[in-house]
């Protein structure tokens, strides 16, 4: 919870202002029963109307002051908690942005969403309530005890018995409740996860008519959330009535004991009424305190979960004295690189190859061979386990991460588009790009013609994730965006898989011209996507089993020959190298 220091430092003055308003309000509440007791015992008992009016006037004045306190406390507490909530959310978002891919893997996307929405709201609401009522409760409780002692020290002995019993009940409540509310949050994560997966795969679910399966899956996690919430509520539900019962027993004891005192002339009726008023205020504030404890249990669980993200140490860090690449030519060298995700088995083993500026290199292999993993190591989304990757002879772990990533443009396997116009989606690659630049890259990516066929052209608005485009169209816009960056290293991760062979060849031809000095890596499943490249790396189960050009590999690499035969088969007889659009 150390991360809260920052917010305490920023908001403590407003917090104190709100608490000051709240104390004014509490003092007004505390004075009322004593004034009323005097009104009864002095004014009413002696038929002194003047005293009754005077005391009534005081009561009105104090109520007015209390109302001013309440208004002030409402305004300040709402303002402060909203500012605090917005800042906490924004800081958490920033932290999530800088989480390494490994960090995102560890937390899971759905859990991060719950933390930035539900958990932040819990904490913000807790702070709001704390300023609105939570602080008032202890002030009222302690104030009422003091006033009660002032009215009748002998009757106050009953309080000395009641208050510790209630303190113990509340302590047990906190201890038992905390683990239950942590479980509620975990169940909430599961709901988010299932919902996200369903919404992402809604078409697949419909195509396979798996609605019932998904309904069951949702029902299970929903039921689990309901169960754990019920359990948490059940456990904590015992405590509030237990406190009420204890306080009510105290009130009965006061009435009983008070009646003896009145009979013996040791106390007046007004004072007993005021004492019961204070007792009721104590009950009310203890009820609020028990609610505070329930709330604080949830808020603490949320605070801890937010804290886990803030405290997560990225394993991928900038070096102490980072080096910078300032050349527009980048030579990439992999030397004996091995890699595994987490504690899993090695998915890349002893990878050694290089790629020179101006060279285009293809990576091919069966699914799960490790192709995407291999290119994800270049921008340091993950760090190598052993071996090293060098760019222009500098180990990438020595490079400034921002500078390194600026040198790389990547088109991921799944084209990622944002809600907004096509123009904005392409311009995302370079925010100060001109219209001509955007049109040029769209032409190279073979996107210009289909964009202009839309009535709104480049201003066509895309739905979430580009739902109103075909798979191939999305890929071409993603390629245009990556081209706009004109980075020295360009990585295309199977990003033309939904584009036909002819269009793909035109894209590669334009790309080679546009990025003539760049080092280009093309991952592909289709052999036709790479067979005309300068160099092809063949991956199989995380190992390089062949490097060379198409004809060399056909002679030397069994895996490559198998891929060639299985994909082109008979067509291989007539798909000649000369027929494919050469990009050299
Ligand atoms: N984020 C991840 N966490 C854990 N394991 C992963 C992760 N991503 C990939 N893997 C595993 O690493 C191995 C290589 O995966 P990778 O995605 O690199 O293969 P690929 O050759 O690109 O496959 P494809 O052609 O199907 O995209 C697979 O066994 C996969 O299960």
Automatic annotation (TrEMBL):
What's one Pfam family here? ABC_membrane
Q: Which SUPFAM superfamilies match?
A: ABC transporter transmembrane region, P-loop containing nucleoside triphosphate hydrolases
UniProt-listed PROSITE patterns:
ABC_TM1F (PS50929), ABC_TRANSPORTER_1 (PS00211), ABC_TRANSPORTER_2 (PS50893)
State the Gene3D superfamilies in the record.
ABC transporter type 1, transmembrane domain, P-loop containing nucleotide triphosphate hydrolases
Highest taxon in the source lineage: Bacteria
InterPro entries the record matches: AAA+_ATPase (IPR003593), ABC1_TM_dom (IPR011527), ABC1_TM_sf (IPR036640), ABC_transporter-like_ATP-bd (IPR003439), ABC_transporter-like_CS (IPR017871), P-loop_NTPase (IPR027417), Type_1_exporter (IPR039421)
Q: Where is the ABC transmembrane type-1 domain?
A: 16-298
Q: Does the keyword Transmembrane apply?
A: yes
Please give the start and end residues of each transmembrane region: 52-72, 133-151, 157-178, 237-260, 272-293
Tell me how this protein sits in the membrane. Answer: Multi-pass membrane protein
Keywords of the record, alphabetical order, are: ATP-binding, Cell membrane, Membrane, Nucleotide-binding, Transmembrane, Transmembrane helix, Transport
List the subcellular locations: Cell membrane
Q: Which GO terms describe its cellular component?
A: plasma membrane
- Gene Ontology MF, one: ABC-type oligopeptide transporter activity
User: Which residues does the UniProt record annotate as the domain ABC transporter?
Assistant: 332-566
The protein in question is named ATP-binding cassette, subfamily B
**Species per Swiss-Prot/TrEMBL record:** Anaerobranca gottschalkii DSM 13577
